[in-house]
Amino acid sequence: MRELDALLSEGVAGRRVLVRADLNVPLDGTRITDDGRIRGVLPTLTALRDAGARLVVCAHLGRPKGTPEAKYSLAPVGDRLAELLGTGVAFASDTVGPDARAKVAELDDGGVVLLENLRFNAGETSKDDAERAAFAASLAELADVYVDDAFGAVHRKHASVYDVATLLPHYAGELVTREVSVLRRLTTSPRRPYAVVLGGAKVSDKLAVIANLLDKVDRLLVGGGMMFTFLAAQGHPIGTSLVEEDQIDRCRQFLDRAGELGVDLMLPVDTVVAERFAADAEPQTVDAAKIPDDRMGLDIGPRTAEAFAAALGDAGTVFWNGPMGVFEFPAFAAGTRAVASALVDNDGLTVVGGGDSAAAVRTLGLPEDGFSHISTGGGASLEYLEGKILPGLSILEK
């Protein structure tokens, strides 16, 4: 995989560089509530600008259905990108149309243009190879070189991620290179003990990663909404808590397999419950094996939080994906905070697997530099750990 340094050594002054960025940030109207993904691509953009490249930045936002939708416009992102870069960023009101072509033609060395949302074009995500290739060709016409720095999208076979790299000289940006380097450390001779913490709502979202990592880890800690399917697999009542009935047998198999392998699969011993899913619901701590019929679990309990923190304290390697509870509600955020704080205190390799976990770090006000690495791609990092071939990475290696 050719890296950014190789491109810079070749020289990029005056060349148009199409940079696929991950700018899929959360918005409250037009206000960006977390600019972490924009910050993630800054090193690559800055290095290219300093070298005199003419930058054509493309990205997606949300899930529009192949046609423009005002609420998914990248215009607010362009404003924030300009602030962070400390330079003007031209915004094209289309992606490969007349405004995009005009804005790109006007670029000077070190200039930046941001194209409108890639997913306003059906060809970006099309399952039809020809339709996707046609859109990729239009993107490729805007540039001389392609740099992929959108790790959060490399698990998608989309036009801007895969097909355009078949048409232009292609390189991995600094963010993609760093993400791959860290994930390789998780899958190749990790320092032990190796602990994985999984949370989030659904077991089904994590089935493949559990299956692939179970014989590689020393400790597997399970919290969040997915813990209740595991508790149900042990025969415990779970009240009105979230559960995936069709995954109970699979969870039982994981429990049995962990025992055979000698893996310490840790489930909560207590949980914080409430009558309803609401920020102002009254929290109550109960034994995880005795959840009342009219209560739902919304966080791991204090004894579990203490046990999880202890299990993470001496780990040489930790991968964490998924909050321990509904961290957006202060009354149910303690479990997630305990796990995150344990990683901050750990001196080993601590990796936050993007998505809601990364959002929790920022929401709870924890120091981002307290972790070895915070991934920008939750789904991509999980699929990498599942052992899948990621289209956006495989094409960069050709």
Relevant terms:
single chain; 398 residues; alpha/beta; elongated; six-stranded parallel sheet; 14 helices; 17 strands
Task: Explain the layout of strands and helices.
Layout: H1 4-10, E1 16-20, E2 27-28, E3 31-32, H2 36-50, E4 54-58, H3 75-85, E5 90-91, H4 98-105, E6 112-114, H5 129-140, E7 145-148, E8 170-172, H6 174-187, E9 194-198, H7 207-213, E10 219-222, H8 227-233, H9 248-261, E11 264-266, E12 270-274, E13 284-287, E14 296-300, H10 302-313, E15 317-321, H11 334-345, E16 349-352, H12 355-363, E17 373-374, H13 378-385, H14 391-396
Parallel strand pairs: 1-4, 1-7, 4-6, 5-6, 7-8, 9-10, 9-15, 10-11, 15-16, 16-17
Antiparallel strand pairs: 2-3, 12-13, 12-14
Helix pairs in contact: 2-3, 8-9, 10-11
